[in-house]
């Protein structure tokens, strides 16, 4: 059950890790092209001989490619919180590349869910310091 539905029903037993996992899963379903780009760019680095690489660099390249090839009006958005999930997913799907991305323990498993929606482009004006 999605976090927002659980919060609406008064259940807050979901931890922050599960909450973020739900958010990245929803994003992935809405933007499957991001996974394709993630795989392509990661395999390019593997083919160039890298034994380890930065998931941050892969994400920034996706941003660059999406913005540079976009319509010039709509800015592409992807949350930084998704990086670890994409890195782990890649290494689960391709176990021969386990360790290509360096990951840490996900401490969010030990924190309560925020039950807040993600900040998106619609929130930027609200966050702007005047």
Topology:
Blueprint: H1 3-8, H2 16-30, H3 32-47, H4 55-68, H5 83-93, H6 124-127
For this entry, give a set of tags.
6 helices; mainly alpha; 0% strand; 130 residues; disordered N terminus
What is the overall number of helices?
6
> Order of helices and strands, N to C?
HHHHHH
Counting DSSP E segments of at least 2 residues, the number of strands comes to 0
Characterize the biggest β-sheet.
none
Gross geometry:
flat
Count of structural domains: 1
Stretches where pLDDT is under 50 for at least 5 consecutive residues are: 1-13, 108-112
Give the terminus-to-terminus CA distance: 39 Å
Mean pLDDT: 77
Q: Structural class given helices, strands, pairing?
A: mainly alpha
Radius of gyration: 17 Å
Strand content: under 5%
Helix residue percentage: 40-55%
Textual characterization of the structure:
With 130 residues, this protein is mainly alpha-helical. The chain has one domain (3-127). Helix content is 51%, strand content 0%. Helix 2 crosses helix 3 (32-47) and helix 3 (32-47) packs across helix 4 (55-68). The N and C termini lie far apart (39 Å).
Give the gist of this structure.
The chain is an all-alpha fold and 130 residues long. It has 6 helices and no strands.
């Amino acid at each position: 059950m999605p976090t927002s539905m659980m919060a609406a029903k008064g259940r807050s037993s979901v931890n922050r890790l599960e909450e973020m996992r739900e958010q990245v899963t929803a994003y992935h379903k809405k933007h499957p092209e991001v996974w394709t780009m993630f795989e392509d760019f990661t395999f390019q680095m593997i083919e160039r001989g890298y034994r380890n690489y930065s998931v941050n660099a892969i994400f920034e390249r996706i941003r660059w490619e999406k913005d540079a090839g976009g319509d010039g009006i709509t800015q592409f958005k992807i949350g930084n919180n998704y990086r670890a999930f994409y890195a782990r997913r890649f290494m689960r799907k391709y176990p021969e590349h386990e360790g290509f991305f360096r990951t840490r323990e996900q401490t969010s498993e030990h924190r309560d869910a925020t039950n807040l929606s993600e900040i998106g482009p619609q929130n930027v004006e609200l966050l702007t310091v005047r």
